[in-house]
Amino acid sequence: STASWSRFLRQTGGTWQAQWDAQTGVPRRLFGRGVVVAGSVATPSVAAQAAQAFLHAHRDLLAPGTLDGDFVVTVNDLDRGLRTVVLAQTYDGAPVRGGQVSFRFKNDRLFVVGSEAWPGVRVRAATAKASLAAARENARAWLAAEGGKRATAHAASEPMVLPLVHADGVIAYRRVREVSVDTTAPRARWSVFVDAATGLPVARQQNLRFGAGTVHYNAPIRNPLLERADYPAARAQVTV
Predict the structure, then answer these.
(1) pLDDT tens digits for 60-84?
(2) Are 164 and 174 in contact, with CB atoms under 8 Å apart?
(3) How many other C-beta atoms are found inside a 10 Å radius of the C-beta of residue 58?
(4) DSSP of 135-149
(5) Are 113 and 28 in contact (CB under 8 A)?
(6) How many helices (H) and strands (E) does the chain have?
(7) 119, 185, 124: which is closest to 159 by C-alpha?
(8) SS3 48
(9) How confident is the model over 139-193, as pLDDT tens digits?
(10) C-alpha–C-alpha distance, residues 181 and 159, integer Å
(11) Which residue stretches of the chain are H helix?
């Protein structure tokens, strides 16, 4: 990373700052004065070509261990003068979950680059393929076996590559299918990842987020000229 960063600064003029991902060793954000790309805000194809060329020139920094063909344009959006181009990461034709490199253009200047690319992806070629029915049933049974939860499995995705970061920092990659599973008692919605070849569960992620809070009113203690305090919002109805 140090050598790639030094080379990047020499080639681009050294006007960038970086925020680094400790797990992957790639810069999650690069920002600075940027580089001029004429027509990038008005013309989507110009921005896309500039993003791909920038990634090609600095792939050792932004996505080490990948190939040019591993990235495809999935977003090319203009919003109030800011154009965003996103290149999604793939491996052997399959999407790498969460992997992408993004580029932001304003006033015809590329000034922010973000990398969530996964480095050095390597996965054995698939020698077998579990059926969609087996993937859904194994994902459902894995969650249903815990505490007698009622689990319902929905659609299973096409095969993808799932990065797994172990406690010692080692990153492993598995070829999986993602199965959406709903459970009750307690209510939850899961992404369960099953091995694409065997159909056996590999990992899971809870997709619902929960929170609690207390609403108070800030009001005068006796009249508007005196001290104020927070009071419970009795009988208030709140919609979030």
Answers:
(1) 999 999 998 999 999 999 999 999 9
(2) yes
(3) 21
(4) HHHHHHHHHHTSTT-
(5) no
(6) 4, 13
(7) 124
(8) helix
(9) 999 998 876 578 899 989 999 999 999 888 889 999 999 999 999 877 889 999 9
(10) 17
(11) 2-12, 44-57, 59-62, 132-144
